[in-house]
Amino acid sequence: MKSNKLIYTLVSLALMGSGCKKALDLKQQGVYSSTNYFRNEVDAVNAVTGIYSILPEEDYIGHAESTFDTPSDDYWRSGDHGEDEAIENLTYDASNAAIRYPWKWRYEEINRATNCIINIPKITAISADVKNRSMGEAYFLRAFGYWRLMIIHGDVPIITEADYTSLNFNVPKSPIEDVRKQIESDLLKAVDLLPESYAAADRGRVSKGTALGLLTKLYMYWEKLPEAIATGQKVISNPAYALAANYTDNFTRANENSTELLFSIQAVQNVVQNDFTVYYIPRPWGGYGFSQPLQGLANEFEAGDPRKEATLLSVGDKVDLGDGNGLTTFTADLSATGFAFKKYAVFNTAAAGGGVDHSYAVPLMRSADIYLLVAEALIRTQGAGAGDALINQIRRRASASLKPVSGAGMKELIHERRVELAGEDQRHQDLMRWDKAKIVDIAAIYNLAVSKAPLDQNKTVTFVRPKNYYFPIPQVEIDKSKGVLVQNPNFN
């Protein structure tokens, strides 16, 4: 996290300026390791909190993970990261920097979680509730690290607790089936251990619904549709995870106490920078101007659907930047596509000078996603119309004026997921799993004119099956393993 790095730098400079000899003469008070750190309840809670602290990292969920949705037909890469162009055009190789960046953070999350799983059970000065909760959080967060590895790369190394204890981190890849089983095992444990909800002081921690939600997503990608229905129903039938009354509230500070946010990135103004948000905001407004929505996404919204206005900024729209200058107009020079993601353009209108708001929770998984996954599983197992009730709940929440669906099949379900979850890094993975099931033709979709930025109209995107269903293992990791890691097929 940038702010923490800055704090460490300032502390180091202060020590250097205060006299090196005095600093070197300080008596060492203690050395902590996994064997002597875990003494009491506070240590357990702090260790688990340390797992969460990885999420806002710019090279992890803060930004780098969203790069893997860049090939989708929802938005254009923009920005000044040259490696993103190869990701978008499916011309990347194993040396691509964007593929390398988040690898170590996924395993850092797994390692920190495993450390907690091994050591928290040894603590005696801890209440049963906190011990169970902490273990549940660690199991979920380890599962999430493996989930991102599996979704992006397929076969990946599994670091067992025995490997961790013996410090053996150079292990070969496990088949994707084993990775899925590892994720499932951790999530089932998390479901048993986690509470349904938390008091305000612990806002943002994962709940039983979070684990059930990710388990539902796992089963959908595993093509275990009946299991997805069973776990998903436990989320959508529980008032603790109810949809927010207003769609827009999911993307403002109003989401702080939302039941819909199953998993989110927590940031704090002037302490932890929310890179996820910054990347979506136009540069003249204090952001980086990445991920600019495409015309095809804008066209997808039905007339009168307020989710379009909540999701997209179009030329001529007005925004309060909180700078005291009233409303600012979104102009054509702010985007090469004519659009920006409004749902992440959140500004600190309550503070003098305004600026990007870093204190709202960025949604990583919402109940709405689970509603639509269950609807999809019902359609695919029971036929058209089986998911109508759930799709219509999502549509009614968006606007009472939207016409209810009747006899909805996959076409209607695909539409609803696109407009509901636009910009939330679901589209490319959705299209790939539907392509595997021969429900869509991803190669044809990606070459539609509305699926490309105006600057890229002459480019042909070639989606190669099965090569492009997964990204390669970073070449640097292959090299470091000295033959233990084997590259994914078609990337040698």
UniProtKB/TrEMBL annotation:
Pfam families: SusD-like_3, SusD_RagB. Keywords: Cell outer membrane, Membrane, Signal. CDD domains: SusD (cd08977). Residues 62-220 form the SusD-like N-terminal domain. The keyword Signal applies. The keyword Lyase does not apply. GO terms for cellular component: cell outer membrane. It is found in: Cell outer membrane. InterPro entries: SusD-like_N, SusD_RagB_dom, TPR-like_helical_dom_sf. It comes from the Bacteria. Its main location: membrane. PROSITE patterns: PROKAR_LIPOPROTEIN. Residues 287-490 form the RagB/SusD domain. Belongs to the SusD family. This is RagB/SusD family nutrient uptake outer membrane protein. It comes from Mucilaginibacter rubeus.
